[in-house]
Structures are given as C-alpha cells and as structure tokens.
Amino acid sequence: MVERKKVLLRLDPAVHDALARWAADELRSTNAQIEFLLRRALTEAGRMPREVGRIRGPGRPRADAYDEE
Q1: Is 16:31 a contact under the CB 8 Å cutoff?
Q2: Is the dihedral of CA 45, 6, 11, 16 positive or negative?
Q3: What phi and psi, each to the nearest 5 degrees, are found at residue 28?
Q4: Residue 26 and residue 17: Cα distance in Å, rounded?
Q5: pTM across the whole model
Q6: How many CB atoms lie within 10 A of CB 23?
Q7: What is the pLDDT, as a whole number, of residue 64?
Q8: What is the 3-state secondary structure (H, E, C) of the chain?
Q9: Is the pLDDT of residue 3 over 70?
C-alpha cells in the first residue's frame, strides 16, 4: 500500500464544521471528504494525474474488502 502524504490544513471553523457535517452525511471522515472534493476539482479542471489510484467509497469497507487487495 502506498504511504499517504500528511498535510497541515488551516480552515475557518465554520468551513470545517460545514465540511464535517457534509462528510458525516456521506459516511466519510472529514479527511476523506476533503480528498474527495480535491479529486473532483482536479478532474473537472483536467489536472488529475493519470497515475492516481482510486479512492475508497464511502462507508465502512465490506468484511471481504481486504481479501481483494
């Protein structure tokens, strides 16, 4: 598995709260929601690198999900 980059991100508290609520509505963590939105923005701008792996879907992984890797 590829090691994930760690980034310090400073957000307005109201933006963070709205993002956290949105993430909860879609069964994602706040970090996963930020990555989802960044990937969508990169794709829409035509800037998504070809070598980028797929992002895991929302919610808990299936019990057999780790057997597939």
Answers
A1: no
A2: positive
A3: -120, 160
A4: 14
A5: 0.73
A6: 19
A7: 74
A8: CCCCCCCCCCCCHHHHHHHHHHHHHCCCCHHHHHHHHHHHHHHHCCCCCCCCCCCCCCCCCCCCHHHCC
A9: yes
Amino acid 48 reads M
Checking 6-12 for CB contacts under 8 A at 24+ apart, the result is: 9/34
Give pLDDT tens digits for 25-64: 999 999 999 999 999 999 999 999 998 887 766 667 777 7
> Could you tell me the residue ranges of all domains in the chain?
13-53
Residue linked to tokens 């980059």: 5
Q: Please, are residues 20 and 30 in contact by the beta-carbon 8 Å criterion?
A: yes
The residue written with tokens 């996963």 in the block is: 32
Residue 65 in tokens: 């999900």
